[in-house]
Design a protein that fits this description.
This protein has 341 residues and is of the alpha/beta class. 40% of the residues lie in helices and 16% in strands. Bound molecules: nicotinamide-adenine-dinucleotide (NAD) and UDP-4-deoxy-4-formamido-beta-L-arabinopyranose.
Length: 341
């Protein structure tokens, strides 16, 4: 009998890749998603990759009766909780929407887990909890700064809620840095709805001719080339980190009930380095201009990864060139689909 892992938000960008990696590692993914930021085509992509259609429930996670039904139908061994809204700017405009979904959703998932005696969860946190760090790289013990957006606050609060429930629930709290790339097959990837806010989808759409040019938000920062630095992490590496985290929970290897890990490569790349790597690896020119700074941008952040390597036994395997190659491959697949529809 395979261990069953409930993947909330399992048709989203990170959830869909994780569902595939879970299956490949011998788990049975059970997916719940309300399609608020994804499409059913992700389920078809997963199906093509794993060779069968995983159990899928189109439900809102805040709907406790609907969640209860899933737990009744499946003996769930662990939960990976991805389902949340994630757009920083939108969270400033619609804070209630973010607190409702990200906090209300987490509470509903935890209530249901508790009712069914399921006590293992992997939580999607974010490097956003560190804010503008005083020192880089950031370590897990680096104190959090006050959140700069309601979105960031929901991640800090989510961590706090899980920390307050350690008397019954074991948590692997994964703080992702900047997830990018796609499955190398091009069958699943990120689906940005509307005009992308994030660098990589904007870049790939510009390369595809959907956007006229990319704006680099500021080149006079105090960094080697003047542009901001981030720790970009391939979504496949990220998905594999979730498998490790689930294994640690199921095999009861946790040393503490609440464990937190940085999930990054440990290397920072500037915006200009990202553009250049994309152009070199894909042999394509990306029109860009230097524009004003984007308000709220952190100047530079990358992960200290010693803890995750030593304790979780996970290390990122894919470099920036692979991320840019797979991101472009996915954009080409997406463009084909749009053209054919
Ligand atoms: P995503 O939007 O692609 O995936 C989230 C999925 O959850 C979507 O398919 C959406 O339809 C679903 N969802 C949202 N609210 C729901 C609800 N109430 N009920 C059921 N389904 C719901 O986002 P992602 O990039 O895959 O991110 C996954 C998680 O990782 C989120 O919690 C996000 O905050 C966190 N995270 C993401 C990033 C990033 O840059 N992508 C970085 C750090 C942390
Ligand atoms: C990356 C770099 C921009 C777009 C966001 C969230 C964070 C986390 C990850 C969820 C920055 C620059 C961007 C563009 C640009 N998500 N840029 N032109 O802001 O690091 O992080 O996603 O938890 O919470 O804030 O990612 O991809 O938006 O930006 O120059 O058109 O690219 O200034 O330096 P960010 P991003």
């Amino acid at each position: 009998m395979k261990n069953k892992v409930l993947v909330t938000g399992g048709l989203g960008f990170i959830g869909s890749h994780t569902a595939v990696c879970l299956y490949e590692a011998g788990f049975e993914p059970i997916i719940v998603d309300n399609l608020s930021n994804s499409k059913i085509s992700a389920l078809h992509g997963i199906q093509e990759l794993i060779g069968y259609k995983p159990s899928f429930y189109q439900n809102d996670i805040s709907n406790i009766p609907a969640l209860t039904k899933i737990f009744e139908e499946h003996k769930i061994d662990a939960v990976i909780h991805f389902a949340a809204y994630k757009a920083v700017g939108e969270s400033v405009e619609f804070p209630l929407k973010y607190y409702q979904n990200n906090i209300g959703g987490l509470l509903a998932v935890l209530e249901t887990m508790k009712a069914f005696n399921v006590n293992s969860v992997v939580f999607s946190s974010s490097c956003t909890v560190y804010g503008e760090p005083d020192q880089v790289p950031v370590m897990e013990v680096t104190p959090m700064k006050e959140a700069e957006s309601p979105y960031g606050a929901t991640k800090q609060m989510g961590e706090r809620i899980l920390n307050d429930n350690t008397n019954w629930c074991n948590t692997q709290c994964l703080r992702y840095f900047n997830p990018v790339g796609a499955h190398p097959s091009g069958k699943i990837g990120e689906l940005p709805l509307g005009i992308p806010n994030n660098l990589i989808p904007y870049l790939t759409q510009t390369a595809a001719g959907i956007r006229k040019e990319l704006t680099v938000f500021g080149d006079k920062y105090n960094t080697p080339d003047g542009t901001c630095i981030r720790d970009y992490i391939h979504v496949m590496d990220l998905a594999e980190a979730h498998v490790k985290a689930v294994e640690r929970l199921i095999e009861n290897k946790q040393e503490e009930a609440f464990e937190v890990f940085n999930i990054g490569t440990g290397t920072g790349s500037s915006v200009l380095e990202v553009i250049k790597t994309f152009e070199d690896v894909n042999q394509i020119n990306v029109p860009y201009k230097i524009g004003p700074r984007r308000s709220g941008d952190v100047v530079q952040v990358w992960a200290e990864t010693t803890k995750v390597e030593q304790v979780l036994g996970w290390k990122a395997q894919r470099d920036l060139s692979t991320m840019m190659k797979d991101a472009w491959n996915w954009q080409l697949e997406l463009s084909k689909k749009t053209f054919n529809n």
